[in-house]
Amino acid sequence: MSKKVPLYIDGEFVASKSEQWIPVTNPATQEVIAQVPVATQSEMDAAVESAREAFKTWKEVPVSERARVMMRYQALLKEHQEEIAETLAQETGKTFEDAKGDVWRGIEVVEHAANIPSLLMGETVENVARKIDSYSYTQPLGVCAGITPFNFPAMIPLWMFPLAIACGNTFILKPSEQDPLTPTRLAELFEEAGAPKGVLQVLHGNKEQVDFLLDHPDVRALSFVGSVPVAEYIYRRGTENGKRVQAFAGAKNHCVIMPDANKQQVINNMVGSSVGAAGQRCMAISVAVFVGAAKEWIPEIAEAIAKVRPGAWNDEGAAYGPVISPQAKERVEALITQGEKEGAKLLVDGRNCKVDGLPNGNWVGPTVFSNVTPDMEIYKTEIFGPVLCATEVDSLEDALELVNNNPYGNGTSIFTASGAAARKYQHEVEVGQVGINIPIPVPLPFFSFTGWKRSFFGDLHAYGKQGVRFYSETKTVTARWFESDLEDPAGPNMSINL
Ligand code: NAD
């Protein structure tokens, strides 16, 4: 019998009464390692009710005490980083190094949340009129919710609940049903860090549970990370219901390679950023745009990518793990087949990949296409597999036109030795996160994660100052204090301008 993943409701890890359970499988073996429940209506109601009640007291807890919970949480996550990474690696297939990175990037957000007192500071102006002062406060919203994808089961939940809760809100997390064990461990450690009962709830399930959160009048704000169609749906339904919504979606990230770039650096960076994590990163480089003579490096890049191989999470020689499910493998392989049919040149073919001793894993080998054009499906679709599409243009202007015509705007990078080319690219590119000689420019948590276009639906981005604003309201006070009755001798004040 595989273990049953508990719900976390009202400060208790409870066994669900659901009759519907979803198997959680190890993607390297297909072994069922756990069963995750589809929460029942009364369990969902109980989670919101508890979060609503907990908000009444949590919002009154002094901000420095809230910060201290985050400090203890940060220390606990660091202490348990390897243990969490091991669980994470087994349910996602990620290599151990990559799994530790997933946890680490989340820990950095908790560190940021521990700075909450200064992040919540408002503004003040004295004497906005005679003897009148104005000042603003940042106050929490109430119950917030988060819906997370499979590809970063530690980092992405940690983008959300620590900051929301540090701001004084309570939070309901609905993690991906494909890897719920890591988020459950995050919740256990959060409780151990001293988070009071009800401040965090974890509800498992799928669309039905998400729809419940989207429609519940007590949920004030909703953060989502996942695929484009679901992000768009969640943004629309949540905002129609009057909620604040931030929805982070899919991507097609281009790396522009100028002929003056350092060739060896380009080769090394292209390998990790395209096929690392089996290409299942929203910031993976999936399109390499070679400008002018840089195209001559394509065979060497393909050769370097062909040398890496997938393998088990604890195989130190493996560059990356399996894709998340047999369906994901089938989808990626079908796209490779389609790319070949549409006329792209398949330089490295990752289909029918085998890994010794693990015949049932969802393996996709490293794959490289050249001669890719914008009309091809492999260019238009987020493949979310270890596949690099190489394309060629004549100039930096042509590269900018290509990238700017793409509907996504999550991340991009340029490799060059020219400051002028880099400056032009960073200024003119219509993408929210830009790397210069850095392939995957994910901002650290004191900035915000700022995807654009169809990679993001909303206004305020994740973490950083924008994350704090997303999870809070601003209250502006205008105040006058009379020193005596004689101060405003003119009688009733009729001159208020609205
Ligand atoms: P997904 O959209 O299938 O699932 C994400 C979450 O939404 C899960 O919790 C799932 O249970 C829920 N969900 C699925 N279908 C739903 C529906 N019809 N209605 C309501 N909820 C639904 O995404 P995934 O496959 O888990 O994750 C991969 C995707 O996430 C990729 O497209 C990737 O680019 C994207 N992603 C984006 C970012 C970013 O910051 N922009 C970061 C990580 C992942």
From TrEMBL:
| Keyword field contains Magnesium | no
* Pfam families linked to this entry: Aldedh (PF00171)
Keywords assigned:
NAD, Oxidoreductase
InterPro entries listed in its UniProt record: Ald_DH/histidinol_DH, Ald_DH_C, Ald_DH_CS_CYS, Ald_DH_N, Aldehyde_DH_dom, MeMal-semiAld_DH
Q: Which GO terms describe its molecular function?
A: methylmalonate-semialdehyde dehydrogenase (acylating, NAD) activity
User: Which GO terms of type biological process are on file?
Assistant: L-valine catabolic process; thymine catabolic process
Which EC number(s) are documented for this chain? 1.2.1.27
Q: Which PROSITE patterns match?
A: ALDEHYDE_DEHYDR_CYS (PS00070)
Record domain Aldehyde dehydrogenase: where: 13-477
Instruction: Show the PANTHER family listed in the entry.
Output: MALONATE-SEMIALDEHYDE DEHYDROGENASE (PTHR43866), METHYLMALONATE-SEMIALDEHYDE DEHYDROGENASE [ACYLATING], MITOCHONDRIAL (PTHR43866:SF3)
Family from the record: Belongs to the aldehyde dehydrogenase family.
Name this polypeptide is given: methylmalonate-semialdehyde dehydrogenase (CoA acylating)
Its source organism is Idiomarina loihiensis (strain ATCC BAA-735 / DSM 15497 / L2-TR)
